[in-house]
Amino acid sequence: MGEWLYLIIGIAVLAVVxxxxxxxxxxxxRAVEAPxxxxxxxxxxxxxxxxxxxxxxxxxxxxxxxxxxxxxxxVRLRQRLASSQGGLGRGLLAxxxxxxxxxxxxxxxxxxxxAADIGVVPTQRVVDNLRTRLRVQGTEVADARAxxxxxxxxxxxxxxxxxxxxxxxxxxPGVVLVVGVNGAGKTTTVGKIARILVAExxxxxxxxxxxxxxxxxxxxxxxxxRVGVEVIxxxxxxxxxxxxxxxxxxxxxxxxxTVIVDxxxxxxxxxxxxxxxxxxxxxxxxxAPVTEVLLVLDATTGQNGLIQARVFREVVDVTGIVLTxxxxxxxxxxxxxxxxxxxxxxxxxxxxxxxDDLAPFDAGAFxxxxxx
Length: 372
Ligand SMILES: Nc1nc2c(ncn2[C@@H]2O[C@H](COP(=O)(O)OP(=O)(O)OP(=O)(O)O)[C@@H](O)[C@H]2O)c(=O)[nH]1
Prior knowledge:
This protein is an alpha/beta fold.
């Protein structure tokens, strides 16, 4: 009987232990299956602002981009130029091919040219020349196109030297200073020029001297990272001249071909701008001469752009113009107006937000694009 009692007690103990084990296992199972606690929401990292821009993803140095080569970029961008500007030439040709070129028609031709922002004086000149040439020569429609092409080409002036001075002398790098009001596309243009130079196997350093906007500095840093170009930056609000100085100094030491300096474009007043850009240029030239001063203008701003251009011309010796956003405007005539205003050539045109949407300006190709 005693043996039976021990056996029953033993079985009971085993059953209790097994039951306890089962409950504990189930308990652990539930703990594993339980949904994880919600993640703590942390502030986005500083780069997020740059990340948000579709054209400026953060790319690690291991994944350097190869910028588009000049030849394929030109073919692509010429088509884009023709699609944004072709309306002007088509409109003019339609008017010129009318049976009778009466006063109303000449007035419409004048209005079409003015609407494209060519400016009053050049418009008058073209209309006068067309009137004389088409009357004297009694020209057929087919010739009207050739005459119009010649007149537009003369306005754009193919004789201007549009080469970018990106090389220095005496062992110095070329130094390109990029100026213009905020929002014109300065920082983007600096990034795009760097890519053009990298595609041509030149060594480049960038100076982020637009220290008033942290986002502009970050934006430029991202442009540089994408193609493995060093970007010299200062703290937010630091002296733009010291950043420019440091960029050129490091560029000289590293033996690069070109240093491109992005500047701040606050048009607070002429004196302030003059002091700021004057100082930037002076300190740079302690290291190496500035070889090119590019003024970036937004083609969509019309007369306003011309007023800005005038202010910058008085402040700094502009040597070339970059017209941005020509893709977003049918007013390609601004090329003529701004060259007339400043007496310096348009050297580059921006034709989109893509990283390789910047092209050297070519007078003949531009006029052909106008004629559609
Ligand atoms: N469609 C089009 N957009 C352009 C072109 N060039 C620049 N942009 C856009 O214009 C906007 C302003 O360009 P930014 O380079 O930031 O202008 P910024 O002059 O440096 O202005 P801050 O950085 O404020 O000094 C951006 O959204 C660019 O993508 C262009 O040729 N075509």
